[in-house]
Amino acid sequence: MRQKREKANGIRVFLLCLFLGAGTLALFVIQDRGAFLMLADFNKQEIPFCMELSGFLHALPKGKIGSVFCRQWDWGMDLGSSVLYSFGYYNLGSPFYWLTLPFPRSFYPYLMAPMMVLKYAAAGSFSYWYLKRFVRRKETAMIGAVLYTFSGWQTVNLLFFTFMDVVAFFPLLLLGLEKLMAEEE
Fold first, then answer.
1. What's the pLDDT tens digit per position in 150-181?
2. C-alpha span between 142 and 132 (Å, rounded)
3. How far is CA 155 from CA 39, 44, 118, in A?
4. Which residue has better confidence, 51 or 74?
5. How many CA atoms lie within 13 A of 106 on its CB side?
6. What pLDDT, in 10s, does the model give residues 54-77?
7. Residue, of 30 and 77, whose pLDDT is higher
8. What is the pLDDT of residues 86-107, one digit of tens each?
9. Residues 6 or more apart from 90 whose CB is under 8 A from it?
10. Which pairs from 100-107 meet CB under 8 Å and 24+ separation?
11. Residue 90 in contact with residue 162, Cβ under 8 Å?
């Protein structure tokens, strides 16, 4: 019974953060006719890098996606650059980016908001899993998870899209460390 309730609370936090994230970005998406555009690095780096890597990966022969991690060269990036070195930080390490690969590269301005919303939802649910270990009432963990997900730091760093992955997965690192330390005792 207790596990079912905790699982339901985890789903509630996921959905709450999903809807709150969608609500906070909806006005901007509507204003930009479905795309999510900001300024500075977001428009000049994040979106073009996603599009460039998508084009590169879609152009690879079938069955050669693993060769990306070797020294593949992309002449479309700057004056030419290694795919791993150029995109390792921005895209290759992001599970959220890999979810967008079925879409054509022209869709990326329209995929940025849904990716952000998924990152919010993941941050909320993962932080709930971590926080529930330290509180008596699970509702307190739910509130803490929402506060973590929509913290000021997260809001200020919307321009740096890749930082949101770290915020989403950091609670899992903490949870793993807690479990490791508990096993050692």
1. 998 887 777 777 888 889 999 999 999 999 99
2. 8
3. 14, 19, 15
4. 51
5. 0
6. 777 777 766 655 555 555 776 766
7. 30
8. 777 778 888 998 898 888 888 8
9. 45, 46, 49, 50, 53, 162
10. 100/50, 100/54, 101/54, 101/57, 101/58, 103/54, 104/54, 104/58, 105/50, 105/51, 105/52, 105/54, 105/55, 105/58, 106/51
11. yes
Which pair of structure tokens corresponds to residue 142? Answer: 């739910």
Place of tokens 């050692």: 184
Hunting for tokens 């740096």 — which residue is that?
A: 160
| Encoded amino acid at 170, one letter | F
